[in-house]
């Protein structure tokens, strides 16, 4: 008998990982818990792609709407993301890749790049995430990634050079281990980690509004402008 988790893995494995065409710019997004693609990050991806003739957006698939094991959901997102990025960079070697994630999706993206693992906390308390290795930013597919943006990440670490926002000086509810933080710092030249004061995940606060503030019409232009600068457009 197949479990719900097994069925999710089968579905993800069956999904196409590479778009039918190669874009000059390809954005991969991981949605937040409870969201379906494209989710709130659409305001930023739209701003990034505005006026560009060859700019696509794809979903890093994982069971984001599942109420089950959150650690397992992140593991599935990491596995899918690693294959999707590798496949795309291999098929489209001239493409510039952008990766971003919000909330639980930021954990997926951050753990994909920096390695992850360990006990869940907060809403994920009681589960154990399997250890996964970091991605090398100097070899395929990492060498094709020109910008990474994390929004409201539970894995947020205080006082990092790539932190942005009023919550930059506080750890998140599941801050990275020193080992994983060191691996994330290798991405520092192409990474911004956005955190607002009071954010329930990255700032260990109580303000759910702060947790979704990154996508308002007044704020979305901030990460979009930075991403476009990394793309050289």
Describe it for me?
- The longest helix has 22 residues.
- With 233 residues, this protein is of the alpha/beta class.
- Helices cover 32% and strands 17% of the residues.
- The N terminus is likely disordered.
- The protein has a 6-stranded parallel sheet, sandwiched between helices. A two-stranded antiparallel ribbon has the order 4-5.
Walk me through the topology:
Elements: H1 4-14, E1 25-30, H2 42-49, E2 55-59, H3 70-91, E3 96-102, H4 104-114, E4 116-119, E5 128-132, E6 145-151, E7 163-164, H5 178-185, E8 191-194, H6 208-211, H7 221-231
Helix pairs in contact: 1-3, 2-7, 3-4, 4-5
Summarize the structure.
This protein is an alpha/beta fold and 233 residues long.
Record keyword descriptors for this entry.
233 residues, alpha/beta, 6-stranded parallel sheet, disordered N terminus
The succession of helices and strands, N to C, reads HEHEHEHEEEEHEHH
Instruction: Trace the largest sheet across and list its strands.
Output: 2-1-3-6-8-7
Mean of all residue-level pLDDT scores: 91
Q: What amount of the residues lies in strands?
A: 15-25%
Task: Sum up the overall morphology in one term.
Answer: globular
Query: Biggest β-sheet: count, sense, barrel?
Result: 6 strands, parallel
How many strand segments?
8
Cα radius of gyration in angstroms? 16 Å
* Unreliable segments of 5+ consecutive residues: 1-16
| Helix segment tally | 7
Fraction of residues in H or I helices = 25-40%
Distance, first to last CA = 51 Å
- Decide which structural class fits the backbone: alpha/beta
